Amino acid sequence: MLFGFIFSALILTSFASEQLNLDKLYQYVDRNYGELALKRAKAWRSIIENNQQQSDQVKLEKVNRFFNLFDFVSDQKQWNKEDYWATPLEFIGHKAGDCEDFSVAKYFTLLELGVPIEKLKLTYVKAVKLNQFHMVLAYYPNAKSVPLILDNLDGEIKPAHKRRDLVPIFSFNGQQLWLNKQKGKGELVGSSERLDNWKDLSKRYQLSEFKQ
């Protein structure tokens, strides 16, 4: 939801900086979401643990393919709220979410896989065919390149210029915020601390209970 998260704080956390006790993590998922969710959580961690040395392209493909198996469900139906950003664990637990949940889960997972934060931007767009706002994850091979788009609406990772069905509005990562005037490029407008729903998300995405 475009207007629900503007003007507050963006705080990023990542599993990558934590030494996790996976037994605790799996017990939590099993207890709160059940056996099928536990299998998904183990598959997720396997992707992270077994692909650290792969190329970025392989990492993008594996992460995009994994999460795009999940179901698209509106926040209203899933959470009985107009706008709610699920943590990756909540998303994996329910195997369902909206566009923000797909993009956020891919973002955090790629950070864990060692993809540099400066190559990743969560990007709000206008989905022309659906006539609604939508979020995707953009990956920039380098600072001047046209990004590749990871999207739950189209499972194929494509350069932004081939996604004529998407009109970029603005993008952000854990450091900065850009207004996007054209595909692949943006005008830096300040710190990502101007954003909102990340503050609530970061509070819920705490990993201290899963540390070794």
Strand order of the largest sheet: 6-5-4-3-7-8-9
| Secondary structure tally, helices | 7
Which ranges are low-confidence, i.e. pLDDT below 50, for 5 or more consecutive residues? Answer: 1-17, 181-194
Q: Shape from CA axes?
A: globular
Can you offer a commentary on this structure?
By secondary structure, this protein is α+β, with helices and mostly antiparallel strands. The chain has one domain (21-210): C8orf32 fold. It is 34% helix and 22% strand. The strands form 2 sheets. Strands 6-5-4-3-7-8-9 form a 7-stranded antiparallel β-sheet, covered by helices on one side. Strands 1-2 form a two-stranded parallel ribbon. Helix 3 runs antiparallel to helix 6 (99-112). Mean pLDDT is 83; it is low at 1-17 and 181-194.
For the structure shown, list the relevant keywords:
212 residues, alpha+beta, C8orf32 fold, seven-stranded antiparallel beta sheet, globular
Provide a brief overview of the structure.
By secondary structure, the protein is α+β, with helices and mostly antiparallel strands.
Secondary structure elements and pairings:
Layout: H1 22-33, H2 35-50, H3 56-67, E1 71-72, H4 75-79, H5 88-94, E2 96-97, H6 99-112, E3 120-127, E4 132-139, E5 148-150, E6 158-159, E7 166-172, E8 176-182, E9 185-191, H7 198-204
Parallel strand pairs: 1-2
Antiparallel strand pairs: 3-4, 3-7, 4-5, 5-6, 7-8, 8-9
Helix pairs in contact: 1-2, 2-5, 3-6
Pfam family, one: Peptidase_C93
InterPro entries: Transglutaminase-like_Cys_pept
Organism: Catenovulum maritimum
